[in-house]
Amino acid sequence: MQSATRVLIAEDEPNALEGLAELVAGWGYATERARDGVEAWGKCLAWNPAILITDLKMPRLDGIGLLSRLAEEKTGPTGNTTVIVLTAMGSIELAVDAMKLGAYDFLQKPVDPVRLKTILSNATRQRSTDIELEVARRRLRESGILGSLVGGARRMKEIFGLIEQVAPSNVSVLITGESGTGKELVARTLHDLSERKMKPFVAVNCAAIPETLIESEIFGHEKGSFTGAFERRAGCFELAEGGTLLLDELGEMSVNTQAKLLRVLEERKLRRIGARNEQDVDVRVLAATNRDPGEAVTRGQLRSDLFYRLNVFHIALPPLREHLEDLPLLFDSMLGEMNQKHARRVAGASQELLGRLGNYDWPGNVRELRNVIERAVILCPDGATLDTSHLPPGFAQSRGALQNLGDPGVLPVRLGTTVDAVEQLLIERTLESVGQNKTRAAEILGLSLKTLHNKLKAYRRQPGQ
Q1: 444: buried, middle or exposed (CB in 10 Å: 19+, 13-18, 0-12)?
Q2: Which domains are present in the chain?
Q3: Which of 181, 197, 451, 462 makes an SS bond possible with 317, Cβ 3.0 to 4.6 Å?
Q4: How far apart are CA 349 and CA 353, in angstroms?
Q5: How many CB atoms are located within 10 Å of the residue 191 CB?
Q6: Model-wide pTM > 0.85
């Protein structure tokens, strides 16, 4: 009800303050008055108004200063206060600045009562919607869902908590985990829960771009800057302006490109290849890797200064085999997603199939589970239940690579075999098991596609190959 909605009015001109307070109170709102910004700030803390109507020019603390304090208090008692600013005829630029700081709307003086009543009504309705959404999000989190992420295990709930803490900030985040654990989903969730959510989210896979093109892809280039540069091109930083850029498989980027990236991160300026001038960039950078970043630094694959610059906050994702209790939640979520994607009505899964899924190590992690479920949904007759006949041929039956040496999915190794020979055999056998599908093999092996291709090329160069 409107009568329960608290409205604080901050105005240094006594007659205008009284007139506005009486007008707003006449519409059924509970009102309080403040004669300047300092008094208004004190009443915000003590009274926690739902809506603040404030003049921009006031003694002691002006409207912009009051807005700035409110913006800094996002997680405190005033964090949900909706602000409407009042501005004189010649102060539209100040009103625009106020909107950038988070003001809901602005009104020119003298105040038009009809417009004020409409804005108050809309602000109250929007606030109610925001509260309902937050309650819904809280219930989803408690049930094991955060954005596109699913997981009710203790470890996943801890990660959800970290994501919610760091998402509203602009700090860089390093996301680590095996291939297929959901690193890009974490990055998208960080973006969606931030103030940049209405701006672009751009993801670039550093492992999928040839080394000769990666600088152009990230920083952009000018026409004629190199052979084949037939037109000017914006890079990923420019495409993500105001939003979030995810650099996936950062360890695959050359050290020289890493140095240029570090400079952009530190100076917030970039220069396209072939350009004379630099330009400002406002982008939040997230990085992801399936390697141990500390080991990559030791080996010289990742610059230590870039690592420390990106590792302001670290989120480490566990492999699926370490939180298999989440499998039922993940299965239900993915089944619903695939039913919608393929316009199917698959009813569920047999206990035998669920048992097989739970008795598998999932080397390809959540991505592999998604692929298995999508394939099963496509094969299953509409309206029927998934069973083991819908699993991929040769789907592993044992949990743990050494539990059953008679299993065709197990690779026995003779003592004395070199590590390189075992690795080559493992890669070749994995490719055989997935019908030479290199993308799927890379997922299962925990390698980037680029690394897998490089290893296969090296095997072909060996004598006798």
Answers
A1: buried
A2: 2-137 (3.40.50.2300), 144-318 (3.40.50.300), 320-405 (1.10.8.60), 411-465 (1.10.10.60)
A3: 181
A4: 6
A5: 24
A6: no
